[in-house]
Design a protein that fits this description.
Strand content: 5-15%
Strand order of the largest sheet: 1-2
Oligomer: single chain
Number of helices: 6
Helix content: 55-70%
Number of strands: 4
Shape: elongated
Distance between the termini: 20 Å
Order of helices and strands: HEEHHHHEEH
Length: 192
Protein backbone atom coordinates (compact mmCIF):
# COMPACT_ATOMS: atom_id res chain seq x y z
CA UNK A 1 0.00 0.00 0.00
CA UNK A 2 1.32 3.42 -0.92
CA UNK A 3 1.12 5.97 1.85
CA UNK A 4 0.57 9.59 0.85
CA UNK A 5 3.01 10.90 3.41
CA UNK A 6 2.83 14.65 3.68
CA UNK A 7 -0.37 15.10 1.66
CA UNK A 8 -2.15 16.75 4.60
CA UNK A 9 0.86 19.02 5.06
CA UNK A 10 0.86 19.86 1.36
CA UNK A 11 -2.83 20.76 1.44
CA UNK A 12 -2.44 22.90 4.56
CA UNK A 13 0.67 24.71 3.35
CA UNK A 14 -0.61 25.31 -0.17
CA UNK A 15 -3.82 26.84 1.20
CA UNK A 16 -1.83 29.05 3.56
CA UNK A 17 0.52 29.99 0.70
CA UNK A 18 -2.49 31.19 -1.35
CA UNK A 19 -3.62 33.39 1.55
CA UNK A 20 -0.07 34.75 1.98
CA UNK A 21 0.27 35.42 -1.76
CA UNK A 22 -3.08 37.25 -1.70
CA UNK A 23 -1.83 39.35 1.21
CA UNK A 24 1.33 40.27 -0.63
CA UNK A 25 -0.56 41.27 -3.77
CA UNK A 26 -3.14 43.25 -1.80
CA UNK A 27 -0.63 45.04 0.38
CA UNK A 28 1.55 45.91 -2.63
CA UNK A 29 -1.45 47.49 -4.34
CA UNK A 30 -2.38 49.39 -1.16
CA UNK A 31 1.21 50.57 -0.64
CA UNK A 32 1.27 51.88 -4.22
CA UNK A 33 -1.96 53.81 -3.58
CA UNK A 34 -0.53 55.16 -0.33
CA UNK A 35 2.71 56.23 -2.02
CA UNK A 36 0.76 57.93 -4.81
CA UNK A 37 -1.50 59.76 -2.34
CA UNK A 38 1.47 60.95 -0.30
CA UNK A 39 3.35 62.01 -3.46
CA UNK A 40 0.35 64.10 -4.56
CA UNK A 41 0.22 65.73 -1.14
CA UNK A 42 3.95 66.47 -1.12
CA UNK A 43 3.81 67.86 -4.67
CA UNK A 44 0.93 70.15 -3.69
CA UNK A 45 2.67 71.37 -0.52
CA UNK A 46 5.97 72.05 -2.30
CA UNK A 47 4.17 73.90 -5.11
CA UNK A 48 3.43 76.76 -2.74
CA UNK A 49 -0.19 76.96 -3.93
CA UNK A 50 -2.84 77.48 -1.27
CA UNK A 51 -6.43 77.50 -2.49
CA UNK A 52 -7.97 77.32 0.98
CA UNK A 53 -11.32 79.07 1.28
CA UNK A 54 -12.75 80.30 4.58
CA UNK A 55 -16.15 81.63 5.57
CA UNK A 56 -16.70 85.00 7.30
CA UNK A 57 -16.02 83.45 10.72
CA UNK A 58 -12.72 81.91 9.66
CA UNK A 59 -13.90 78.30 9.36
CA UNK A 60 -12.31 76.31 6.54
CA UNK A 61 -14.76 75.64 3.70
CA UNK A 62 -12.51 74.07 1.07
CA UNK A 63 -8.87 73.18 0.78
CA UNK A 64 -7.02 71.01 -1.73
CA UNK A 65 -4.30 70.44 0.87
CA UNK A 66 -6.88 69.23 3.39
CA UNK A 67 -8.46 66.92 0.79
CA UNK A 68 -5.06 65.47 -0.16
CA UNK A 69 -4.12 64.99 3.52
CA UNK A 70 -7.39 63.15 4.06
CA UNK A 71 -6.77 60.92 1.02
CA UNK A 72 -3.28 60.07 2.32
CA UNK A 73 -4.71 59.26 5.76
CA UNK A 74 -7.37 57.02 4.21
CA UNK A 75 -4.71 54.98 2.40
CA UNK A 76 -2.76 54.57 5.64
CA UNK A 77 -5.88 53.34 7.41
CA UNK A 78 -6.64 50.99 4.52
CA UNK A 79 -3.16 49.46 4.88
CA UNK A 80 -3.81 48.56 8.48
CA UNK A 81 -7.25 47.16 7.67
CA UNK A 82 -5.69 44.85 5.05
CA UNK A 83 -2.97 43.76 7.49
CA UNK A 84 -5.50 43.01 10.23
CA UNK A 85 -7.78 41.16 7.80
CA UNK A 86 -5.00 38.82 6.72
CA UNK A 87 -3.92 38.13 10.31
CA UNK A 88 -7.49 37.06 11.02
CA UNK A 89 -7.66 35.07 7.78
CA UNK A 90 -4.47 33.17 8.55
CA UNK A 91 -5.58 32.30 12.07
CA UNK A 92 -9.06 31.24 10.95
CA UNK A 93 -7.50 29.09 8.24
CA UNK A 94 -5.52 27.27 10.95
CA UNK A 95 -8.62 26.95 13.13
CA UNK A 96 -10.74 25.46 10.32
CA UNK A 97 -7.90 23.12 9.37
CA UNK A 98 -7.42 22.03 12.97
CA UNK A 99 -11.12 21.21 13.24
CA UNK A 100 -10.82 19.02 10.15
CA UNK A 101 -7.72 17.24 11.53
CA UNK A 102 -9.37 16.53 14.88
CA UNK A 103 -13.05 16.23 14.03
CA UNK A 104 -13.84 18.79 16.73
CA UNK A 105 -16.38 21.51 16.03
CA UNK A 106 -16.53 24.81 17.91
CA UNK A 107 -14.05 23.93 20.69
CA UNK A 108 -12.25 26.59 22.67
CA UNK A 109 -8.73 27.35 21.46
CA UNK A 110 -6.87 25.52 24.22
CA UNK A 111 -8.90 22.32 23.72
CA UNK A 112 -8.33 22.47 19.97
CA UNK A 113 -4.57 22.85 20.44
CA UNK A 114 -4.55 19.89 22.83
CA UNK A 115 -6.38 17.69 20.31
CA UNK A 116 -4.15 18.80 17.44
CA UNK A 117 -1.08 17.83 19.47
CA UNK A 118 -2.71 14.48 20.32
CA UNK A 119 -3.02 13.93 16.56
CA UNK A 120 0.79 14.29 16.44
CA UNK A 121 0.65 17.64 14.65
CA UNK A 122 3.04 20.33 15.84
CA UNK A 123 1.68 23.60 17.21
CA UNK A 124 3.93 26.62 17.61
CA UNK A 125 4.14 27.98 21.15
CA UNK A 126 3.50 31.40 19.57
CA UNK A 127 0.11 30.38 18.16
CA UNK A 128 -1.56 31.34 21.44
CA UNK A 129 -0.32 34.93 20.94
CA UNK A 130 -1.73 34.89 17.38
CA UNK A 131 -5.07 33.73 18.80
CA UNK A 132 -4.99 36.59 21.31
CA UNK A 133 -4.05 39.10 18.59
CA UNK A 134 -6.87 37.81 16.38
CA UNK A 135 -9.37 38.23 19.20
CA UNK A 136 -8.03 41.71 20.00
CA UNK A 137 -8.41 42.75 16.36
CA UNK A 138 -11.95 41.36 16.16
CA UNK A 139 -13.31 42.40 19.57
CA UNK A 140 -11.07 45.25 20.81
CA UNK A 141 -11.23 43.67 24.26
CA UNK A 142 -9.03 45.30 26.95
CA UNK A 143 -8.38 41.93 28.60
CA UNK A 144 -6.89 40.61 25.33
CA UNK A 145 -4.66 43.71 25.12
CA UNK A 146 -3.36 43.00 28.63
CA UNK A 147 -2.75 39.34 27.71
CA UNK A 148 -1.00 40.21 24.46
CA UNK A 149 1.34 42.82 25.92
CA UNK A 150 2.78 40.06 28.15
CA UNK A 151 3.54 37.68 25.28
CA UNK A 152 4.15 40.06 22.36
CA UNK A 153 5.12 43.46 23.87
CA UNK A 154 6.92 44.77 20.79
CA UNK A 155 3.62 44.64 18.91
CA UNK A 156 2.45 47.74 20.78
CA UNK A 157 3.35 51.30 19.84
CA UNK A 158 1.62 52.33 23.06
CA UNK A 159 1.10 49.53 25.59
CA UNK A 160 -2.23 49.29 27.44
CA UNK A 161 -2.67 51.98 30.08
CA UNK A 162 -5.55 53.50 32.02
CA UNK A 163 -6.82 56.91 31.02
CA UNK A 164 -8.08 59.52 33.46
CA UNK A 165 -11.53 58.04 32.94
CA UNK A 166 -10.14 54.62 33.93
CA UNK A 167 -10.64 53.27 30.45
CA UNK A 168 -7.91 51.05 29.09
CA UNK A 169 -6.38 52.26 25.83
CA UNK A 170 -3.51 51.05 23.65
CA UNK A 171 -2.11 51.33 20.15
CA UNK A 172 -0.98 48.35 18.10
CA UNK A 173 1.94 48.60 15.69
CA UNK A 174 0.96 45.98 13.13
CA UNK A 175 3.02 46.10 9.95
CA UNK A 176 3.84 43.78 7.05
CA UNK A 177 6.52 42.01 9.10
CA UNK A 178 3.90 41.25 11.75
CA UNK A 179 1.63 39.66 9.16
CA UNK A 180 4.51 37.62 7.71
CA UNK A 181 5.41 36.46 11.24
CA UNK A 182 1.80 35.34 11.75
CA UNK A 183 1.99 33.34 8.52
CA UNK A 184 5.21 31.68 9.76
CA UNK A 185 3.65 30.84 13.14
CA UNK A 186 0.55 29.37 11.51
CA UNK A 187 2.68 27.38 9.07
CA UNK A 188 4.65 25.98 12.02
CA UNK A 189 1.35 24.87 13.57
CA UNK A 190 0.37 22.29 11.01
CA UNK A 191 1.26 18.84 9.73
CA UNK A 192 4.63 18.07 8.21
Amino acid sequence: MIQLFGFRAYMFESGLDRIRDSFRASITTMQNHSRDANDLLLDYITSGVDDSEYDDEGALIKSTRHELQHAALETTLALSVVQEAFITSAFHYWERSARAWTGLHKPIFEALVKEVRKADISVSDELSAVNTLNNLIKHNNPDRALDLVKTWPDLFITPPYSTLRRELTWRLGINNATVERVFSIVKASGPV
